[in-house]
Design brief:
Elements (H helix, E strand, L loop, with lengths): L1 H15 L14 H9 L5 E5 L3 H12 L3 E5 L11 E2 L6 E2 L4 E2 L7 H8 L4 E3 L5 E4 L8 H21 L8 H8 L7 H15 L22 E3 L7 H5 L3 E3 L4 E7 L2 E6 L2 E5 L1 E4 L3 H6 L3 E3 L4 H9 L1 E3 L2 E6 L11 E4 L9 E4 L8 E6 L3 H6 L3 H16 L8 E4 L12 E3 L6 H6 L8 E3 L9
Parallel strand pairs: 1-2, 1-13, 2-9, 7-17, 10-14, 13-22
Antiparallel strand pairs: 3-4, 5-8, 6-8, 10-11, 11-12, 15-21, 16-19, 16-20, 17-18, 18-19
Helix pairs in contact: 5-6, 5-7
Length: 440
């Protein structure tokens, strides 16, 4: 009996390391292997907290291996930090907006291919940059800034030891004196580094912020709607929406998950709740998570990226240009804009606030955020920027179900602290999600 439980626990741990996209490959297995896989978790009941990609991926994989799975989701829709709004006539992605490195090995690309998603490459070089006075920079100036930015990060990588606890901003200030006083360099650090990592350079680990692995090929946007990739994962699953989890008990006798819709009992629990909610302690664990887990949760950073999309009757910007950079006085304040006109007939322009400014923008009311973002646009295009006919925006860092966008390594944080969060607790509780793996 105990050997069976042990085997299932080990199999469950292994299953959580596999991509749900890989389940599509099951048909290629010999019949005996498919049957063994389908029976591996038979007789076990698994409760999955969260219906984002991690939660759905785990639930689908375990269900295919014979487990009785129930998914508990706080929001009224599946997807977690992947949610698409079509009201503007073109998809607005509240959360995940790009497939980064859409190679054949990328599980997200595999999911997109499975639903015949339409994608368009976003060209980082199709870019116009304006300084804080609204003056357009020529391409030679932009190239020089990007080279200086890349050289500064290369200097950090070559000169800092792995145990160095400086932030990106501290390291650049020490190794490249005066660089942070250059508006071009500061914009590049924000538009490139802060946007990619979801955190401010003042709180990004200098040695580890760019040490994770990445897939190949230029990034793409899913012009047919990112949320389409969720359907194959969710199909056939028992998903309870609008069900807020408040407590998890786990031990030798199994698990009990307490929600506002009652209690759920099972053999195992997979918690894919975002790192922000784990930091806030919105789920009470009994017994409490061990000190090492609590330390890792506290040490790993969890930042925000704020989006605002405006739709206009007419485009006031160059519709052949994909990206616009704007050097704002406040670092990270609506300093990157993406034109939908390069992949859609809709006159939509999407702005982003990153780094330390993202949570400031998140705390604004919708009207305040609208005025703040339009002011940045009008600093460049003046009265040509009329009144938008529609607006959509995000507030990830104050969303009670997420409390942020994605994880990043802080100064002193180690990659192993991400990976260690994936280790099972008492063979009953498993954490999963983007904060439980450093690479990718």
């Amino acid at each position: 009996m105990r050997k069976t439980i042990f085997d299932r626990r080990q199999f469950l741990k292994a299953a959580l390391y596999t991509s749900a996209a890989a389940s599509a490959l099951t048909a290629a297995l010999p019949f005996s292997a498919r049957r063994a896989r389908a029976q591996a978790m038979a007789g076990s009941r698994v409760i999955v907290i969260g219906s984002g990609l991690a939660g759905l991926g785990a639930a689908k994989s375990l269900s295919e291996q014979g487990a009785d799975v129930v998914v508990l989701e706080a929001k009224a829709h599946i997807g977690g930090r992947l949610y698409t709004d079509y009201s503007m006539g073109a998809p607005f992605e509240y959360g995940a907006g790009w497939i980064h490195g859409p190679s054949a090995e990328n599980p997200t690309k595999q999911l997109a291919d499975a639903v015949n998603a339409q994608t368009v490459i976003t060209d980082d070089d199709n870019l116009i940059v304006f300084d804080a006075d609204g003056e357009e920079w020529d391409w030679e100036e932009i190239e020089e800034v990007n080279e200086d930015w890349a050289d500064a990060l290369e200097k950090i990588d070559s000169e800092l030891e792995l145990r160095d606890n400086r932030s990106v901003s501290q390291a650049i200030n020490d190794l490249v004196p005066g660089a942070l006083g250059d508006e071009g360099m500061l914009w590049a650090l924000s538009a490139h580094t802060e946007f990619a990592k979801g955190g401010p350079i003042e709180n990004l680990s200098a040695v580890y912020h760019d040490d994770d692995k990445a897939f190949d090929l230029p990034d793409v946007v899913v012009v047919s709607g990112y949320d389409k990739i969720l359907a194959p994962l969710a199909e056939g699953l028992d998903i309870r929406l609008s069900t807020l989890v408040s407590a998890v008990e786990y031990g030798d006798d199994g698990v009990t998950v307490t929600t506002d819709q009652g209690e759920f009992e099972g053999d195992y629990v997979v918690c894919s709740a975002p790192l922000g909610t784990l930091k806030a302690g919105t789920i009470a664990f009994e017994p409490a998570l061990p000190r090492g887990y609590r330390t890792n949760i506290a040490d790993i950073g969890f930042g925000s990226v704020t989006k605002i999309a405006f739709k206009f009757d007419q485009a006031f910007w160059d519709v052949e240009t994909q990206y616009f950079g704007i050097m704002t006085e406040e670092k990270g304040r609506w300093n990157i804009w993406l034109s939908y006109r390069t992949f859609s007939p809709e006159n939509i322009i999407l702005g982003l606030s990153v780094g330390a400014y993202a949570p400031i923008a998140d705390r604004m009311s919708d009207d305040e955020m609208k005025a703040d973002a339009l002011e940045v646009l009008r600093d460049v295009w003046g009265d040509a920027v009329g009144e938008p006919t529609q607006m959509l925006n995000t507030h990830w860092s104050i969303d009670p179900d997420t409390l942020g966008a994605y994880a990043f390594p802080t100064p002193g944080c180690r990659p192993s602290q991400f990976d260690d969060l994936a280790d099972p607790l008492e063979g009953r509780l498993f954490l999963c999600g983007e904060h439980t793996i450093f690479d990718y």
